Amino acid sequence: MTVPTFTELLEQARVVITRSDALRTQSRDLIVSARRARWQSGDLRHAAEERRERRASGRSPGGSVRSFVIEGGVDDVAQTACWNPADGLTCSTELLLRAQAVVGMGETFGGRSGTATIRAGLEGNPTAILLTVARAFSTVTSITVDTPFSPGEPSP
């Protein structure tokens, strides 16, 4: 077995130091990348929780319902109800009285299997207004809802 010379030992030390520096740099980069991924996953998790809460409570930024039209019948008479933020609820007096009765009885929607409960109402939350008016109909034949989500864009 031959003993390495001083020059050979110095060269080996330089190679080891260079490799060590490269590994240290790679390690720092990986730590920064892991921290960034952890922050991003926390942000994504938080955003997903907010979307689930909004979906469960019927709320989203600017409201999950921009406008709606409900068609159906009240005691075998064809009726239509429309709502948008500018004009509010537009419907027959009879349907409005029935919707007010739904609110007066303290009706609620949801609340089963972990979903949020939405109180019947004719002001404020557009989702509550939609559900309240739909409940006031004897029969509903169609509901058209305009939401802030574009076709192909995932809803919260």
Describe what this molecule looks like in 3D:
- The protein has 156 residues and is an alpha+beta fold.
- The protein folds into 2 domains: 1-57; 67-146, no CATH class.
- The protein has helices at residues 6-57, 93-104, 126-136; strands spanning 67-74, 77-84, 88-90, 108-110, 117-119, 139-146.
- It has a 4-stranded antiparallel β-sheet, with helices on one face. A two-stranded antiparallel ribbon has the order 4-5.
- The longest helix is centred in the first third of the chain and has 52 residues, at 6-57.
- The protein is rod-shaped and about 105 Å long.
- The model has no long low-confidence stretch (mean pLDDT 85).
Give me the secondary-structure topology.
Blueprint: H1 6-57, E1 67-74, E2 77-84, E3 88-90, H2 93-104, E4 108-110, E5 117-119, H3 126-136, E6 139-146
Antiparallel strand pairs: 1-2, 1-6, 2-3, 4-5
